[in-house]
Amino acid sequence: MVSLIAMSDDESIEWLEQSRHEFAAEHARVTGSTPDASAEHARLVVERTLPDGHRSDGHSFRWIVDDGRRVGHLWLGPAPDGSADVYIWDMEIGAKHRGKGYGTEALELVEDECRRAGVPRIRLSVFATNDAARRLYERMGFIVDTECGHQIEMTLHLKV
Fold first, then answer.
1. pTM of the model
2. pLDDT 10s digit of each residue in the chain, 160 long?
3. What share of the chain is helix, strand, coil (3-state, %, to 5)?
4. Cα dihedral across residues 153, 103, 24, 131: positive or negative
5. What are the sequence ranges of the domains in the chain?
6. Regarding the domain with residue range 2-157, which homologous superfamily does it belong to in the CATH classification?
């Protein structure tokens, strides 16, 4: 059974740095931007989104854990437009753990938590090239709001 476990301060700091580099590399691959331009883009996104670093208000960094093993990670936070929605800034299941239902279970836990908190919607953005993630989100009930170039914005409307 999957659980979501909060990262420690040190883990959050280390994870954020690694995540920023991975986002920059994926951004460069998907958009064709130079590595330097994508690194700067990633730095600006993280700086704007997390003005107080890992302790920025409303943000939560968690491990996706199954039977004591870390199988992935999750970053939840406020929506970029300031609405009452929760935004999934990043979610990834480790490569060797994919296809085993961990993403589904993690999203179900997020949904339950958001419903209890009275959150109206869960939103996210996914690279258009990430077909597996898009299929998972659609299977979970997320609908496509916009497709703009390399990004797809999706929303799950919660019945609270």
1. 0.92
2. 999 999 999 999 999 999 999 999 988 988 899 999 999 999 999 999 999 999 999 999 999 999 999 999 999 999 999 999 999 999 999 999 999 999 999 999 999 999 999 999 999 999 999 999 999 999 999 999 999 888 999 999 998 6
3. 40, 30, 25
4. negative
5. 2-157
6. Gcn5-related N-acetyltransferase (GNAT) (3.40.630.30)
